[in-house]
Amino acid sequence: MIKKKYKALPIETKVLIVLVGAIIVISFIAPYIHIFLSKTSKDKVFGFNNLRAFTYASGTPYSLLICSSLLILASKYIFERVPKICFKICGHIFLYSSIYQFIWIFWAASDLPKPAYYSSIAILSLIPILISNKIYSRYHLGIEKTKQSIRNLISFLYSLDKEGFIKDEKLIEYKKQRGTVTHKTILDNEN
Questions:
Q1: Which residue segment(s) compose the domain that 158 sits in?
Q2: How far is 78 from 20, CA to CA, in rounded Å?
Q3: Domains in the chain, number
Q4: Around Cβ 98, how many Cβ atoms within 10 Å?
Q5: pLDDT in tens, 23-59
Q6: Distance from first CA to last CA of the chain, Å, rounded?
Q7: Residue 190 and residue 152 in one domain
Q8: 138 Cβ partners below 8 Å, 6+ apart?
Q9: 136 class by beta-carbon count within 10 Å (0-12 exposed, 13-18 middle, 19+ buried)
């Protein structure tokens, strides 16, 4: 079934699938490419002693960059709100980390200034705090909306007998059941 669907795709889509697959495979092996390179090479690359040191330093940020791109891309195809937000946030955190590491790699000086480290730590620390606050506020808001809906429903139940929707012969039984349901609902929602 999958082969039939793949054969029916236009050539541009097939090329894109192969290209994305190749990029993903390269991102998986990028942190390990340095293993195959010579330790004794003296050719400097972007301030590193040799190509091996450069590929060792740039492999992980490259993988993070690809991972972040895939997470952000995947978030565009997720229609449920919470997973979509989680994918976007994780993708942007990975992207931030990747960009920071690439800046460190291509920085002309031997190391980044201390304020860059401290600001990066502060930003990466604030992101989870903001996310958890957002989740808590949405959760709290959801609970308050549910409680308000329950209050509205109970008010509606109490208004039924005043409006004449309940037959007189069933009114006493209705009031007993209404009282039981209301009492149970209040007890269930106290916590």
A1: 113-191
A2: 19
A3: 2
A4: 20
A5: 888 888 888 888 888 888 888 887 788 888 888 888 8
A6: 52
A7: yes
A8: none
A9: exposed
